[in-house]
Write a structure and sequence with these properties.
6 helices; single chain; 184 residues; 2 domains; mainly alpha
C-alpha cells in the first residue's frame, strides 16, 4: 500500500508567455529535435563514412545548442515561480541541471568537431550519444512537471476551455470563481 500525502493544490502557470502560451515548451522542441537529429546523422556517418553526414550533424548541433540557450532562460523563469518545498521544485531543478549537462555535452562534442566537421573524432560522437540519452531523461522530467504536477498549466484548463487568444487565464479564473460562488 502506498501512502500519498495530501498537499493543497497550487496552480502554477508559466510566468513567461506568448499569446497566452508558455514560451519554454514552445522553444524546447527545437533543441530536442535538432540535437536528436544530429545524433541520427552521427549514426549515418559512422555506418556509411560520409563526411557530408558528419557536417550535417555538426550544423544540427549548432542550431540545437543555440535553441537550447534560447529555451533555458524561460525554463529558469518558470522554475523560479514554483513554490519552495514542493516536489515540483525538486523535479524542476533536476530537469534544469540535466538539460544543462546535455548542452555541455553537445557543446563539447561540437567543439571537438569545429576544426574538421566532416571527420569528427569517435569521442565527439560518444558525447553526442550520451547527450541524447541525458536529453531523454531531461525530457521525461519536463513531462513529469507538466503532465503529473501541472506546472505551467492554466488553472481551469479543460477539454472545452476557450481559446487563449480570446479569453485570458485571469478571465478563466474569474469565471471559475463566479461558478463556484454561484453553487454555494
Amino acid at each position: 500500500m502506498r501512502i500519498v500525502r495530501d498537499y493543497p493544490e497550487v496552480a502554477m502557470e508559466s510566468r513567461a508567455k506568448l499569446f497566452g502560451h508558455a514560451v519554454h515548451p514552445i522553444l524546447i522542441v527545437f533543441p530536442l529535435g535538432l540535437l536528436g537529429t544530429a545524433v541520427v546523422f552521427d549514426i549515418i556517418y559512422l555506418v556509411w563514412g560520409s563526411g557530408l553526414m558528419a557536417q550535417v550533424a555538426f550544423w544540427m548541433m549548432t542550431a540545437g545548442i543555440i535553441g537550447g540557450l534560447l529555451a533555458a532562460p524561460f525554463g529558469f523563469i518558470d522554475w523560479m515561480a514554483i513554490p519552495n518545498g514542493t516536489r515540483a521544485k525538486t523535479i524542476g531543478a533536476a530537469h534544469g541541471i540535466t538539460n544543462v549537462v546535455v548542452l555541455l555535452m553537445f557543446v563539447a562534442s561540437w567543439g571537438m568537431r569545429s576544426d574538421l566537421p566532416e571527420q569528427p573524432e569517435m569521442f565527439a560522437s560518444i558525447l553526442s550519444f550520451a547527450g541524447f540519452v541525458f536529453a531523454l531523461v531531461g525530457g521525461w522530467l519536463g513531462g513529469e512537471l507538466v503532465e503529473r504536477l501541472g506546472v505551467g498549466v492554466v488553472e481551469g484548463a479543460n477539454l472545452n476551455a476557450p481559446n487563449s487568444l480570446t479569453v485570458s487565464a485571469a478571465e478563466m479564473r474569474e469565471a471559475r470563481y463566479q461558478k463556484q460562488t454561484a453553487r454555494s
